Amino acid sequence: MARHRRLGRRARLGAAGLASCVALTALAALSATATPGGAADTAATRLAAADTAVAAAADGEQPNFVMILADDLDQTTSPYWEAMPRTAALIRDTGLTFTDGFAPTPICCPARGTILTGKYGHNTGVLTNAGDTGGWATFARNGNEEHTFARYLEDGGYRTGLAGKYMNGIEDDPTHIPPGWSEWYGSVDNNFYTGYNYTLNENGTLVDYGDETTSYSTDVVAAKSTDFIRRAAADDTPFLWYAASTAPHLPLPPAPRHADNPFAGATAPRTPNYDEADVSDKPWWLQESAQSRSARVTAVNDRDYQDRMGSLYALDEMVEGIVRTLRDTGELDNTYLVFTSDNGYNLGSHRLTQKMAPYEESMRIPLVVAGPGVSPGTDGHMVALIDLAPTFLELAGVPVPADIDGQSLAPLLRGEAPQSWRTDLLGQYAGPGVDGQDGVVQEQVENVTGVFLDLPPWSGLRTEDHLYVRWYDADRAPRVHERELYDLTADPYQLVNLLATPQGRHENAALVAQLDARLDELATCSGASCRS
Questions:
Q1: Which entry of 108, 109, 525, 530 is annotated as an active-site residue?
Q2: What is the mean pLDDT of residues 71-89?
Q3: Which of 172, 176, 448 is nearest to 303 (CA)?
Q4: Strand extents, DSSP E, 387-488
Q5: What angle do CA 186, 190, 196 make, to 5 degrees?
Q6: Active-site residue flag, 525
Q7: How far apart are the C-alpha atoms of 39 and 396, rounded to whole Å?
Q8: Residue 49 has pLDDT above 70, yes or no
Q9: Are 429 and 122 in contact (CB under 8 A)?
Q10: 340, 408, 522 from 80: Cα distances, Å
């Protein structure tokens, strides 16, 4: 069958495909045991995208992209590869693992907006899950849906599709399909977090799923994924697929077939900062709420951990099915596979559950890319979710808009030394708002018991050696502003705030002045100034 690739359907298998064939064969045995511009601006960008994409296709092959987005998967604490051996073999071991990957705004909606646009939250206007500075409604109202990598790729000739979780707040307009998506299977209610009794918007039609085993949400996303890839492979256009299960976001349980998994009775890891004993150096809000937060950790953390790890087994099978379908359709050699998460997860560190925090557990994310020309290994550059959109566009031969804040990972994927790269990164969170309803409470599921303890707003600067945090920096109801500073080399678990004592504040005054100046720059940066 004629293909959009100049070499046609895969007569050649190539090194990447061969490696994956070997891995898939081995896994068979394993399975048995285990504010945007105006209209003229937008039109010009789309014309440029289409023209450049045509030129790229004429010169060679435009690659496919499959993005597998986990939900709340932490990089620092959970041994997630133990529950995802297929993904480890098929993506991690054949691709490039970024060891310093970060979510600049570590909560669902802002993080997903950043992924789609390549912009920090202060440039999308989305810094929490709802309200005047958060949620899907704000994201759409600010014109961001016209400026996503999906929109640019579709304008450049790509067939695009999404299944699963899009963005918090979309339930307010359940039949909405954002521009840029050729096919859409997005969840429209928080029951999707439970795995059952949810509704999907399937290309404009609301389809209800029940409580039967076949409705388990990760398995439905998996089925949509392989179906899209098979159909797209028979087409004559390159494709983008965005697979967004909610694993391992609470309260998703393991699939019934994985109920008796190795983590079913496990205890969550007890890191040095787990249920931190002495929080006298921490800001006042954590000291004040320490007892209730510690009780929350004791009550739910181990069960949450068991569900989190158990839910990853179905996600792992989904990845295997996607890779197998890409191989069977001859598309694997020309497809970039990206595995990452929207944010990390505290899992009891510093007496915190959920995410949202400026600490390592919340901000660090797994990020692995496999695909054409990518050699297996690791990379220690400081990368972030803002870098995904420009990466997809550059690899596709589609122009990267100047107002994107991130940097393309393409040189790193090719093993090249970039001309310049960041050595610091902005972090931001707008908090739950004055009535407490704008943040993590938006993720609560009706009739499911839960206690959602939010965090105040903050902004922070993550350098190679330090974390500097200004609490209430983005507050809409200003309170006492406090500061934290951690030496990440000497104190990787962030147990000793260097600014908690008069002596510490004096000794670090010069450093704090430097960090303040740089944080002020990044907090208002846009486009190129975010990359300098």
A1: 108
A2: 98
A3: 448
A4: 424-429, 458-463, 466-471, 483-487
A5: 80
A6: no
A7: 24
A8: no
A9: no
A10: 12, 27, 32
Instruction: Compute the distance between CA of residue 184 and CA of residue 316 in angstroms, rounded to an integer.
Output: 22
Give the angle 312-316-321 at the CA atoms, nearest 5°. Answer: 145
Express each pLDDT in 382-410 by its tens digit.
Answer: 999 999 999 999 999 999 999 999 999 99
| pLDDT of the residue at 434 | 86
Q: How is residue 115 written in tokens?
A: 């992924």
**Cα torsion angle, 175, 177, 183, 189, sign:** negative
Predicted TM-score (pTM) of the model is: 0.91
Query: Which residue in this structure is represented by tokens 């945007």?
Result: 36
> Rounded distance, CA 286 to CA 289, Å?
5
* Contact assessment for residue 105 and residue 114, using Cβ atoms and an 8 Å cutoff: yes
Residue 128 in 3-state DSSP? Answer: strand
* Residue 251, preceding peptide bond in cis (omega within 30° of 0): yes
pLDDT digits (tens, 9 = 90+) for 432-475: 998 899 999 999 998 776 667 899 999 999 999 999 999 997 66
In the block, which residue shows the tokens 């299944």? 163
- Residue with structure tokens 């260097």? 498
Tokens at 228, concatenated: 């899209």
Q: Is 144 helix (H, G, I), strand (E, B) or coil?
A: helix
Are 10 and 331 spatial neighbours (Cβ–Cβ below 8 Å)? yes
Residue owning tokens 């787990």: 274
